[in-house]
Design goal:
mainly alpha; 2 helices; 0% strand
Length: 52
């Protein structure tokens, strides 16, 4: 009985939760102002470069 209940939950609400999470993460990545933050994070390893 427990397996069937968990399976039903995963098939219905689990899918809804994963979809909402995915849309939230994608929206967070494409929000206004995130381009500058992403660029800063990508180039942060070069800030203390002594070779050039």
């Amino acid at each position: 009985m427990t397996y069937d209940a968990l399976r039903h939950f995963a098939d219905s609400w689990g899918l809804v939760l994963m979809t909402v999470s995915f849309l939230t993460f994608v929206g967070w990545a494409f929000r206004p102002g995130s381009k500058d933050l992403s660029s800063d994070a990508a180039n942060s390893i070069f800030k203390e470069d002594d070779n050039g």
